[in-house]
């Protein structure tokens, strides 16, 4: 496979541009991909000057504007033609990059990607998919926020795209697909999940039925499909829950001298656990259903998350996921 | 206030009848409430014979049938007139008991309660409310499963009922109300949450806007309103998440001799934490919007959960919540 060229939005996210550029530099240590850094070139060059790196593998494309988090997606995409996001998406559209990663305004990225890059035929709504940590290995949760209100037919398309992704990227043949639901029985759930259940039964997917919310963390299915409101609630609630519990455990362990001593002895084991449950280890969220790859990195992405997202893009492109999704739909 | 009479379904739930009856006996140690144990009298009497207790305070009402978990709610309620659930609900309807607690089939209890006990005027749909553990004290989450598809007007009614409940039972004046959502801004969420936001702004409630799923565990609002699908997903996912993390922590701590030793030193502090996060400590879920009190106890309820649910009923009745909800709506 030829080398891959990945465009990265250096202006998006809480830690831009420093951590984003740092992450780009770190990816050069492994692999052979080329990176296109998109954003205000003065700022990017300044960040780059802090490092010594292979200049053949980094290209900077100037974009004078930035779409901020509080901007209205449709308006921002239409008006800011010179934003790092719009410029990056156009690089992908024009084939000057194989993929685009941004930690910026999610709504704007989704709107821009759909309008500029375009949908695969047969996909009514592209969706965000993300690997969530689970006890027996990560599962793919989708949609996690692109479509807050979904028809059952979208869910079926999500399931098909997710199966292709999981089979190829995670190497699991005929992955299990489940609908995120409040009970296992076919008649459980809301109007949409009940309709989706009927439709999914008729597909050639490895549909296992409903996946109860209670069992998501134990990896009851490889691909977990739901509307983007539910998926985002699960993702955010899980993140908040984990942070709260870890904070409370820490406070509790620091509450006495004896437990402090105990904590010192446990810390090695617990760090391994924290790594298993770490969302940043898992990478960004690919936006599935587009004719090229666009990845949403977490708004709080640090250099390590950028490295994860770049690796994910590499794997996605190497496995030719876009064409495989086209075949499936 | 006069003594309260609470009917308990002794046949519903995973641990019925033994743990349910045991819990009923334990409640006699505190308070002065009378209990009506509903179910197959032979079985209940047999359980009761294991204890010595004040016979004046326990009454057994025979019910020959049991509604099983897998039965279709509407059919079960219509056909099994002599089930512990239908008999118990009729006791409340006829004023022979002040409240009814069941750990049985949730759908059947909700259907039965609505049909037999009846709704408060102005309440389109009664809803299940439950206290969820949070870092700064429990918050009330509602609906947690009675109505999987909700109109925005239901959400407003949930918010009013929840405010009355939280103010009176938890003693928080003018409690903060938030919509469970995927972002804080008014335009975030799905069609239903956006409409509910507009309607809630117009009420006299202490509406704080959207409560992000990420912040639910830190107690960002006292009353958290959502549709029953979302609420149930949060509740079940939270339970599953907590169980998975505790299991993984345990496994991790047992993985080496040193961390085992450390764990022994920490265990006291961590047990306190586990208690804070324990759902059973918090009690059952009242079904709000009915003309009398019906409480859904967790299907896995043990004696301790029954004690919690009985205490909750006592407090609910003492504070005259039903009439206060009537006034509010």
Verbal overview:
The structure is a homodimer of 329-residue chains. Chain A has 329 residues and is of the alpha/beta class. Chain A contains twelve helices and eleven strands. Chain A has helices spanning 18-27, 41-48, 73-79, 84-93, 106-117, 152-169, 191-201, 228-253, 257-276, 279-282, 303-318, 321-328; strands spanning 5-9, 34-39, 58-62, 99-102, 127-132, 139-142, 176-181, 206-212, 223-225, 285-288, 293-296. In chain A, strands 3-2-1-4-11-10-5-6-9-7-8 form an eleven-stranded mixed sheet, with helices on both faces. The model of chain A has no long low-confidence stretch (mean pLDDT 91). Chains A and B meet through helix 8 and helix 9 of A and helix 8 and helix 9 of B.
């Amino acid at each position: 496979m030829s080398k891959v060229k990945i465009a990265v939005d250096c202006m998006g996210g809480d830690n831009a541009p420093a951590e984003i550029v740092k992450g780009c530099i770190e990816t050069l240590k492994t692999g052979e991909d080329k990176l296109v850094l998109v954003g205000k070139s003065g700022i990017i060059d300044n960040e780059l000057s802090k490092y010594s790196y292979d200049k053949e593998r980094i290209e900077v494309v100037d974009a004078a504007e930035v779409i901020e988090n509080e901007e209205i997606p449709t308006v921002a995409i239409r008006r800011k033609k010179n934003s790092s996001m719009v410029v990056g998406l156009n690089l992908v559209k024009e084939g000057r990059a194989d993929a685009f990663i941004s930690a910026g305004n999610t709504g704007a990225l989704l709107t821009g990607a759909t309008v500029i890059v375009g949908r695969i035929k047969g996909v009514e709504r592209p969706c965000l998919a993300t690997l969530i940590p689970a006890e027996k290995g990560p599962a793919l949760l989708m949609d996690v926020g692109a479509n807050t209100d979904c028809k059952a037919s979208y869910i079926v398309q999500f399931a098909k795209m997710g199966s292709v992704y999981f089979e190829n990227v995670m190497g699991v043949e005929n992955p299990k697909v489940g609908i995120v639901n409040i009970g296992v029985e076919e008649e459980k759930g809301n109007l949409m999940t009940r309709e989706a259940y009927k439709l999914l039964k008729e597909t050639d997917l490895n549909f296992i039925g409903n996946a109860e919310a209670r069992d998501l963390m134990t990896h009851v299915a490889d691909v977990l499909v739901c509307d983007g409101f539910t998926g985002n609630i699960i993702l955010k609630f899980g993140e908040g829950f984990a942070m709260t519990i870890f904070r409370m455990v820490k406070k509790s362990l620091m509450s006495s001298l004896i437990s402090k001593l105990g904590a010192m002895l446990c810390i090695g084991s617990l760090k391994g656990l924290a790594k298993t449950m770490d969302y940043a280890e898992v990478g960004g969220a690919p936006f599935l259903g587009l004719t090229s790859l666009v990845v949403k990195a977490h708004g709080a992405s640090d250099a390590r998350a950028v490295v994860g997202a770049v690796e994910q893009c590499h794997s996605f492109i190497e496995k030719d996921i876009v064409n495989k999704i086209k075949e499936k739909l």
